[in-house]
Write a structure and sequence with these properties.
- The complex is a heterodimer.
- In chain A, β5 and β6 form a beta hairpin.
- Chain A is of the alpha+beta class.
- In chain A, α1 runs antiparallel to α3, α8 runs antiparallel to α13 and α13 packs antiparallel against α14.
- In chain A, strands 15-12-14-13-17-18-16 form a seven-stranded antiparallel β-sheet, with helices on both faces. A five-stranded antiparallel β-sheet of chain A has the order 5-6-10-8-9. In chain A, strands 1-2-4-3 form a four-stranded mixed β-sheet.
- Chain B is α/β, with parallel strands linked by helices.
- Chain B contains 19 helices and seven strands.
- In chain B, the strands form two sheets. A four-stranded parallel β-sheet of chain B has the order 2-1-3-4.
- The termini of chain B are far apart.
- The chains are: A alpha+beta, B alpha/beta.
- At the A-B interface, α2 and α12 of A face α1 and α3 of B.
């Protein structure tokens, strides 16, 4: 690290908040993906003014800045692939305001999702997206990745709740987007442009989120299927029941086996298990909805349908589901966790396609995901120390992406492009769309200093 | 595969199994107090992965991370990939010590225990006005912190045992030395011998420890197998007391802090609560309790080596006690009492006790 730059950073945030200590350089070089690269320096900012000064400095000397939240991203978007400054925003972790009357919460980017959840609970409110990593992931990270989660089908993703942002642009200017009003069509929707922009356009320093009243009752059931196709058909017929489950998750055989290894749940190890939750305000209401969903399961040859009886049963099931990918990490040294998403009618095709791809490339692919919105998580398990397996993993990934796009779906439903899917951007987006995206990046960040190398924008 | 390090030989698979999901970040007390990813369990596993990959040397540069773990095991309890971080860290520390890298505080502690019978390098311990090394049914084993730092609490515990007419004796005890294995050094055979002989000489059938760590050491370490082979039962005081009726109650709002060494490491959650509920009908749990309890920040040598962060961890725990309006915080570990008391702010009006000390005080008042 250039000593002068380090001193300049110390001037901005103080000595305790600048590090080029080896242990920090290692920890800041990773997220939850297979990528890593060491930065030159790590900085903890505490105010928007500091972020602005850091960006002015970085612009002047043309050094990359990579904003970072909890580092739980799965596609390498927080990995400083070209070195530079990792800007850790965890110290900006204040909930600035909760206004039930205005139906909003104003937070700093380093607030952990679960901490906002805890703060909203006494008011009977919640911020619905429910990312599986919610007990650690930060809201800034959720915005940067447009995080989705288990409640996506009924409640949408982060994007649907961001009303307004404060953003520091790559040149250090501070901008406010959106409005704290529930509706606004005033000018271009800059807010939406930043949500999911993976820290490539600006650094979010304040977030205004719309919040929802939290339903007080839920009903949960699981259904097993001996045949993957039956499960797929059950999922895409759910809409005919007229019910939108608050969560509808699928877990494949490998995933169920791995969960059984880690818990005392003794889940049936079948081809597919569907886990459905309905929510509302009375038990009668949620049971009625769930009954409709169960009818669809039965019509599609579910071998077993079981409704969770106690609160503990319910908590255990969801905890198990949320730990699925990390539990699967027990099986092999390495994995990539994809999040291909297809239209609901194509789920059965995608599920059987994943099996075919695993067979073709002779590699293990465990599957689970948010069936309710067509978002599947094929998790490819491989040994990163064996080049042959790495090659097969890469080929299988490429086939998965190709299939998702061919089925009218997308490369990523919620994890983002980052580094992992950057080579496949042109598979999904036509040359005109790519050109527009690159032009946008150039306009906001002419020197390409903000999270460079991501989203396939440099090709 | 031949490996350079013991941690690698035993735990290579587990280090690689860390999926970097970061779930440990939600519960790691060191991360909670510092917000520094390098000090979180995941940060530590990444360092060890790079050591195994030959990208890093296991040297002084890693001390600040690898020697800054309270071994509270909250990460392990919450790790979906089942990575036993505390055990991995202990072996990595051993490898580091072997390679000549160690935090000076622990190097010092190891040297102290060669010369002195306790970790504080102090001379004659308090005898609490009691005859030692008597023939008795029980040996009460105090532990270093209870002898040299929390002697008031120890005296009260002994008074309580007297009130309850327990047949016990103190011994000329020395440090159990179990903690050395946590910080990279072997236990001291001469200390083990001295404790074993002193305990056996009393003819006791039970050792009651005031310190949960000593209890773990006597119960689990092969070095103390002789005690167990001779049929001596080893109990922590909280286990011993749960059958007693004290005949006193308090109307104060009482909460309980689970020491990691008693809770997550031994699964003892209900015994202390059973006792406390008898004396404190107005009992309230903190937000994180039992398996999820926040560490007080004292364990794994962190209090000695990284005092500032250790206190910051204790403050976070005290905030939880404040949030439930506790007037009394009870716990079952002198280290926890010591660290929590040191961290208490003047505006925080609650009092912090070991449970036996508090019960003794209630009984004293009732007399």
């Amino acid at each position: 690290m250039d000593e002068k730059v380090k001193q300049d950073l110390i001037q901005i945030v103080g000595e305790a908040n600048v590090t080029d200590n080896l242990i920090d350089m290692v920890s800041l070089s990773y997220d939850a993906s297979e990528h890593s690269h060491r930065p030159e320096v790590g900085v903890w900012a505490e105010t928007v003014e500091q972020v602005s000064e850091i960006m002015k400095l970085a612009s002047r000397i043309r050094i990359p800045v990579i904003p970072r939240g909890a580092g739980t991203g799965l596609s390498g978007m927080a990995v400083p692939i070209q070195g530079g400054i990792v800007l850790d925003l965890n110290h900006m972790n204040q909930i600035l305001k909760i206004s039930i009357e205005d139906r909003l919460a104003v937070v700093e980017p380093g607030v952990v999702y679960a901490d906002l959840e805890k703060a909203l609970l006494p008011h009977g409110f919640f911020f619905p997206p429910d990312p599986a990593s919610g007990k650690v992931s930060t809201l800034g990270g959720n915005v940067a990745t447009n995080a989705g989660g288990l409640k996506g089908a009924k409640y949408g993703t982060t994007r649907d709740y961001v009303l307004a942002l404060q953003v520091v642009l790559p040149d250090g200017r501070i901008m406010r987007t959106g409005s704290k009003a529930m509706k606004s069509v005033s000018g271009y929707d800059l807010t939406r442009l930043f949500v999911g922009s993976e820290g490539t356009l600006g650094i979010v320093t304040e977030i205004t989120l719309k919040i929802n009243p939290k339903p007080t009752a839920t009903s949960t059931a699981l259904a097993t299927f001996d045949n993957l196709e039956d499960a797929g058909n059950a999922i895409n017929q759910i809409m005919h029941s007229g019910i939108i489950p608050s969560a509808l998750e699928i877990l494949g055989r490998e995933t169920l086996a791995a969960i059984n290894q880690n818990t005392d749940l003794n889940l049936p190890e079948v081809d597919a298990m569907l886990l459905a939750e309905t929510d509302g305000y009375t038990r009668e209401e949620t049971d009625y909805q769930l009954g409709k969903v169960i009818e669809v399961f039965r019509r599609n040859r579910a071998s077993e349908v079981r409704q969770a009886k106690t609160e503990k049963d319910v908590d255990d099931l969801w905890a198990a589901r949320k730990s699925a990918y990390a539990v699967l990490a027990r099986i092999e040294n390495n994995f990539v966790l994809e999040d291909v998403t297809v239209p609901m009618t194509q789920i059965a095709a995608m599920l059987t396609g994943i099996h075919a791809i695993a067979k073709k490339h002779q590699i293990r692919i465990a599957t689970f995901g948010h069936a309710g919105d067509g978002n599947l998580h094929p998790q490819i398990l491989y040994n990163g120390y064996e080049p042959e397996q790495v090659r097969r993993m890469e080929e299988a990934s490429a086939d998965l992406f190709k299939m998702a796009v061919e089925l009218g779906g997308t490369l990523t439903g919620e994890h983002g492009i980052g580094l992992s899917k950057a080579p496949y951007m042109t598979l999904e987006h036509d040359p005109v769309a790519m050109d527009v995206m690159r032009s946008l990046k150039k306009m906001f960040d002419p020197n390409n200093i903000l999270n460079p190398g991501k989203m396939g924008l440099e090709a | 595969m031949s490996t350079r390090f013991e941690f690698e030989e035993k735990f290579r698979d587990q280090v690689l199994r860390c999926s970097r999901c970061g779930f440990c970040q939600a519960v790691c007390p060191v991360f909670g107090a510092t917000l520094r990813p390098a000090l979180n369990a995941r940060g530590k596993m990444l360092l060890l992965k790079e050591v195994m990959d030959g990208k890093l040397d296991l040297n002084d540069a890693l001390i600040e991370s690898l020697f800054q773990c309270t071994t509270c095991a909250n990460c392990y309890k919450n790790c979906p990939s089942g990575v036993n971080v505390p055990e991995i860290i202990k072996l990595a520390r051993k490898d580091m010590v072997k390679a000549g890298s160690c935090h000076p505080a622990f190097k010092g502690m190891n040297e102290v225990l060669d010369k002195y019978p306790n970790i504080y390098a102090e001379g004659d311990p308090e005898d609490f006005d009691r005859e030692k090394n008597q023939q008795a049914e029980n040996v009460y084993f105090v532990g270093c912190v209870g002898l040299y730092r929390e002697d008031e609490s120890t005296e009260a515990t002994l008074d309580l045992l007297d009130r309850l007419k327990v047949d016990y004796t103190l011994i000329d005890e020395v440090c159990c030395s179990g903690v050395l294995e946590d910080v990279g050094f072997p236990m001291k055979e001469h200390l083990v011998r001295k404790n074993t002989d002193a305990i056996l000489a009393t003819g006791a059938k039970r050792v009651i420890t005031g310190c949960p760590y000593c209890s773990r050491t006597f119960n689990n370490k092969p070095q103390y197998a002789e005690l167990r082979e001779k049929g001596i039962e080893i109990l922590h005081i909280t286990q011993f007391l749960q059958g007693f009726d004290f005949g006193v109650t308090t109307d104060k709002r009482v909460t309980y802090h689970d020491p990691c060494d008693l809770g997550r490491h031994c699964g003892i959650y209900e015994e202390p609560r059973n006792t406390i509920r008898k004396i404190a009908p107005n009992f309230v749990e903190m937000a994180d309790n039992r398996e999820d309890a926040l560490c007080c920040g004292a364990g794994g040598g962190v209090r000695g080596a990284y005092a500032k962060n250790s206190i910051a961890m204790a403050r976070r725990r005290l905030e939880q006690a404040e949030a439930v309006g506790a007037e009394i915080i009870l716990t079952e570990c002198n280290s926890c009492v010591h660290n929590l008391a040191n961290a208490k702010l003047r505006k925080q009006k609650f009092k912090i006790y070991n449970t036996p000390q508090f019960i003794n005080e209630l009984m004293e008042e009732a007399e």
